[in-house]
Amino acid sequence: MLEKIVVIGSNGQIGTELVSELRKVYGDGNVIACDIRRPDYDIRNSGPFEFVNVLEKDILRQLFQKYKPTQVYLLAALLSATGEQNPKLAWDLNMNGLLNVLDLGHEYKTSRIYWPSSIAVFGPNSPKDQTPQYCIMDPNTVYGISKLAGERWCEYYFHRYGLDIRSIRYPGLISWKAAPGGGTTDYAIHIFHDALKKSNYKCFLSAQTELPMMYMDDAIRGTIELMDAPAEKIKIRLSYNFTGMSFTPESLANEIKKHIPDFRLEFTEYDQRQAIADSWPRSINDSNASSDWGWKPEFDLSKMTEYMLKNLRK
Ligand code: AKB
Predict the structure, then answer these.
(1) What is the domain extent for residue 69?
(2) Are 92 and 220 contained in the same domain?
(3) Claim to verify: residue 190 and residue 234 sit in the same structural domain
(4) What is the C-alpha to C-alpha distance for residues 126 and 212, in angstroms, rounded to an integer?
(5) Same domain for 208 and 124?
(6) Fewest beta carbons less than 10 Å away: which of 25, 29, 41, 290?
(7) What pLDDT digit, counting tens, does each position of 243-261 carry?
(8) Residue from 67, 143, 170, 240 carrying the catalytic annotation
(9) What ligand 1 atom has the least distance to the C-alpha of 118?
(10) How many angstroms separate the alpha carbon of residue 298 from the centre of ligand 1?
């Protein structure tokens, strides 16, 4: 079947790389990038682009009507740190944006929908190490609350309407092509830029704050593998635990020092993001993703560090 794929939120950290990869696989003209902002030069020139605000349902309906997409990726969201600065907007965008896409996916019989969840669905009472797929989930950020509620809506639309929605709980994503979008894990990207520019970085998380992370190449590959998997292999219709590695600011700095020996890690005054990080898991058990659809990461801390520095130096 000829696929027509719509990516909403195409200008963000994930969207930028996902659109390029999907266009390689499905052809430039079959992947429609959509965002509220003017896109990057590359995205605009390699295929179709539409201005779309996911909260404007009529405009969104016109998009579904025009392209009759077989697949929709909904990436537009406010992340953990920016969400705390504007909780009502975060709830509105993360929740009503999802509901608009689920309704239209149902109305236009979209074959598959992708929606990202996050490790932010876990909270202070979730197990911290090797956090399992199913456990206590008590998120205390508006971002985490919206992701947890969104997971339940995805499962609801699957059971009630048979809509094939697939989802991954992303850890912190590390990439060099596009800027990160206002998350708590963003330090793990800023650190590379500052290491190369001035050999030191002032971190807003403490040295021993361990968080689950993943290099973007793994995240994009895993996302497309999940979407390509036969429906009967997708046993979880909430969202899959998913991880690549776990590290602290200190262990990341030590890895960077292997390439930039005079690199120094310093710390800022207490930042609200520390409390968010402290409420999240240190590591994730993603064995369901491995056994159901064969997930296996390729990047560990040392390979990710090498690739980040090599690509940013270019
Ligand atoms: C954030 O830090 O908010 C995101 C996430 C883990 O979902 N990177």
Answers:
(1) 5-171+214-241
(2) yes
(3) no
(4) 14
(5) no
(6) 41
(7) 999 999 999 999 999 999 9
(8) 143
(9) 7
(10) 21
| Residue pair 137/95 in contact by the 8 Å Cβ criterion | no
Q: Count the domains in the chain.
A: 2
Q: For 222, how many CA atoms within 13 A lie in the half-sphere containing its CB? A: 29
- 211 vs 301: CA distance, rounded Å: 12
Answer whether 173's CB lies under 8 Å from 79's CB.
no
Nearest ligand 1 atom to the CA of 211 is 6
Q: In what order do the strands lie in the sheet with 211-215?
A: 172-174, 211-215, 245-247
130: its two tokens: 């090797």
Residues 128 and 94 in one domain: yes
- Cα distances (Å, whole numbers) of residue 163 to 62, 94, 228: 20, 19, 16
In this structure, what CATH number is given to the domain that contains residue 269?
3.90.25
Alpha carbon distances (Å) from 124 to 45, 58, 127, 279, 282: 45, 39, 8, 4, 11
Same domain, 30 and 48: yes
Active site includes 143? yes
Copy the structure tokens of residue 289.
């993703």
Are both 20 and 160 inside the same structural domain? yes
pTM score, whole prediction: 0.97
The set of protein residues with a Cβ atom below 6 angstroms from ligand 1 is: 79-80, 118-120, 143, 170-172, 183-185
pLDDT in tens, 43-81: 878 999 999 999 999 999 999 999 999 999 999 999 999
Q: How far is the CA of 287 from the centre of ligand 1 (A)?
A: 21
Find the radius of gyration of the CA atoms of the chain. Answer: 19
Q: Residue 88 is encoded by which pair of tokens?
A: 């009502």
